[in-house]
Design brief:
The chain is 72% helix and 0% strand. By secondary structure, the chain is mostly helical. The two termini are 34 Å apart.
């Protein structure tokens, strides 16, 4: 679960209540929502990068765009790993 979700829900309940949100709380709510969406998008992308599409004959028919993204991510990971090795 995403840790900030509790605070987002708390602010949402307060917003609907008779007291409403202060200006600072409204700003906090907007920032937390942005953070939440980034986390969700990251989770979806990670999931999609782990998917391969196979037709009934067993042929890999994963969309080219997804394959390219997987290769780019793999190269980035290898680069970071090698950079960390060199710094030790």
């Amino acid at each position: 679960m995403i840790p900030i979700l509790g605070r987002i829900n708390e602010l949402s309940r307060k917003q609907r209540s008779s007291t409403g949100l202060t200006q600072a709380e409204q700003q906090e709510q907007q920032e937390l929502r942005k953070e939440y969406l980034q986390a969700i998008r990251g989770q979806v992308l990670t999931t999609m990068l782990g998917v391969s599409v196979v037709d009934p004959l067993g042929n890999d028919v994963t969309p080219e765009k997804l394959i390219i993204e997987k290769v780019q991510r793999r190269k980035q990971t290898e680069h970071w790993t090698h950079s960390e090795d060199r710094s030790r």
